[in-house]
Amino acid sequence: MASKIAEAELDSVEKVFAAQEAVPSWKDQLTFRSFVIGFLLTILITFIKVKVSLNTEIIPSLNVCAGLLGYFCLKVWTQCSSQLPFTRQENSVIQTCVVAGSGIAFSGN
């Protein structure tokens, strides 16, 4: 019975994204708004990582925070300005920028 429910849910998810192309071109994935939000969140996450590590001597991994904050910022950006809705790939670009940038900045500390 559980496999029937899982198959039904899988079918519905596939139907939602059936009209979209599988993977957009790299030019559509790397957008200005994803880099701006990625840069701003990199600064924020870097300060948080440095502050926490100096106080507790533990290096936090804030990957999930970067993904959630990126999603939230893009959602607010698209609602405030009448632009196209953001894609899953843009959220991945933001998370990658934040994790890589804060890692490099923290390592240089």
From TrEMBL:
Recorded superkingdom: Eukaryota
Location of the protein in the cell: Membrane
UniProt source species: Punica granatum
A GO term, aspect molecular function: oligopeptide transmembrane transporter activity
Record-given protein name: Probable metal-nicotianamine transporter YSL5
GO cellular component assignments: membrane
PANTHER family per the UniProt record, alphabetical: METAL-NICOTIANAMINE TRANSPORTER YSL8-RELATED, OLIGOPEPTIDE TRANSPORTER YGL114W-RELATED
Record key words, sorted: Membrane, Transmembrane, Transmembrane helix, Transport
Keyword Manganese found: no
Membrane-spanning parts: 30-48
Similarity-based family: Belongs to the YSL (TC 2.A.67.2) family.
Membrane topology category: Multi-pass membrane protein
